[in-house]
Amino acid sequence: MTNPLEVDRSERVQEVRDRAATVRRETVRLVGIAGSGHYSSVFSCAELMGALYSGVMRIAEDPDWPERDRLILSKGHVAVGLYPLLAERGYFPEEWLDSYTRLGSPLGDHPDMRRIPGVDFSSGSLGHGLSIGVGMAKAARLRGYDETRIWVLLGDQELNEGQVWEAAGSASHFGLGNVCAIVDANQMGLDGTTEETMSVEPIGGRFEAFGWDVVEIDGHDPEAILAAAAALPPATGDKPQCIVARTVKGKGVSYMELSRTWHIGYLDPDDAAAATAEIDQRG
Amino acid sequence: MAEVERADGIELAPVPSGKSWDLAGMERLSTSAVAGKVLAAMGEEDPDIVVLTADLKFSNQTVDFERAHPERFVNVGISEQHMVSMAAGMASVGLKPYVATFAPFVGLLAGEHIRTDLAYPGLPVRVIAHHAGIAIGFYGTSHHATEDLGLMRSIAGLTVVCPCDATATEAALRQTADLPGPVYFRVGRGRDVPVYDALPEAHWTLGEAAVLREGSDLTIVANGITVSGALEAARALAADGIEAAVIDAHTVRPFDGATIAEHAGQSGRLLVAEEHNVVGGVASACAEALVEHGLAGVKLARIGMPADEYSLIGPPTHLYRHYGMDAGGIEAKARDLLAA
Hints:
- The complex is a heterodimer of chains A (283) and B (340).
- Chain A has helices spanning 4-34, 39-44, 46-56, 79-88, 95-98, 129-143, 162-173, 194-197, 203-209, 222-230, 269-282; strands at 70-73, 150-155, 179-185, 213-218, 241-246.
- By secondary structure, chain A is an alpha/beta fold.
- Chain B folds into 2 domains: 32-186, Rossmann fold; 207-339, Rossmann fold (3-Layer(aba) Sandwich).
- Chain B has helices at residues 32-45, 63-68, 80-92, 103-108, 111-119, 148-152, 166-175, 226-239, 257-267, 282-292, 316-322, 327-339; strands spanning 49-53, 73-75, 96-102, 126-130, 159-161, 183-186, 210-216, 218-222, 244-248, 251-253, 269-277, 299-305.
- In chain B, the strands form 2 sheets. A 7-stranded mixed β-sheet of chain B has the order 2-1-3-4-6-5-10, sandwiched between helices. Chain B has a 5-stranded mixed β-sheet with strand order 7-9-8-11-12, sandwiched between helices.
- The chains are: A alpha/beta (283), B alpha/beta (340).
């Protein structure tokens, strides 16, 4: 006899896989409209974003529901991967995607909370996001939103920003167990590997030293992501939570994987078609 | 309570009762020193108000808010950029945060955070940048802010105000309470000479330059600590039959250039005195206003930090005298301008 919980879990795993493929496919398409974009930074967190919008975050039909979970894309340059997920939820019309980066479009390379329903905070200046998340978490506590969790997606090279550690220290000082930082540890910044440019390891050890609970997972494994999210203590806890997601920059398109030259790039239509075919095949 | 140190011996106007900050012994304190009391009172009326500071609650008296509303007070330690971003996050959830710290550590150090996290999303965070200008004296340039107006007044969507005394500070805090966007309050160290209580006919109204004195020979525009000095200078000039208009350009953004242009256009001479570099602040805003109103022929003189100098070390009142920001300096510069 089939365990219904197992069925549910395998269905959600497939949902995450499907959404990750959508994120990658749509990123290829939208960056094609723009003529330039951050393919590989999105690809490393495609499963993470897919999972957040596959039942991990407590969100509702109304993107402004006060007690919702919130997501801050501290690595705001992956917004192009978020937009298709927000459109899928019906937060804005699908046609908006076709306007990506066009003059006057609400959708740019970095997300604008005032113009895009479902974007919880404008981002793009690296290092700010965890502080904003700490503020949201503190405010949620003051408001009595006990179940609200604040998710902050950080890049690994971003951890060089000193403000991240100002925020990390204050989250534990204030006992904000309703903050969950997810580090997309894709091993690279713009100029090369984090090891070459400015090392960030041990990521988990650094967060632990600042008073956080840390788990490390394979950030491309939907089961691992869902399990880590499910294992988080209640948001009423007093220790902030960090998920270090080990990922591969450019994951999903073979020649972009851990390639320095693809932080910002452009695929001509033939190459885009080939990349999409690879995404579909590996999806 | 310590007496205000005034080398020139100016007599302080009494402060009438009935203000949020009018507690025993507070008569000599103003700007930053009353902000905490005003916020504590406002916090009684509005449960959404929260106050953040960066290990300076005694310097800016936000401890008064902490005592009244401890659950809504956040001390972030020495992390000013984090404080501004954190306040932005709190505002996005519906709270009304006030952040307070020394002006250089917020108006300069966290300038990008004010732009990107407060003004760009249009969030109702209020920044109280205290001990602005060279008010902290011999602590030196690291603790001075003589460039912040230049940065703040170019940020879209930001309201920038410089209340010159306790009455103005309370008016500024209350009149901006419901603005949907962010506000930058540039205030002194809390030992500023009262201005508005000695001028019952004058009103502090957000966005309107306050004409504190009329005069047809020249126009003096002041802001913050220079307002009381400008009034005193005008009185000294009047003794010699020279009539100077004195305008408190307290709202720097949006800037009431029309009122200033109207007066300067009539007198043909404009003297701007501010506790800021002469580049980028109120003098620059006045010059823009004159040209925009077709008044490029008005003779303009500026008092402030010289364009390419950092402040000497010295007690604040000595520095004000050295740089001509006090009554004597304003009077002397006015006479030069009239002779030019």
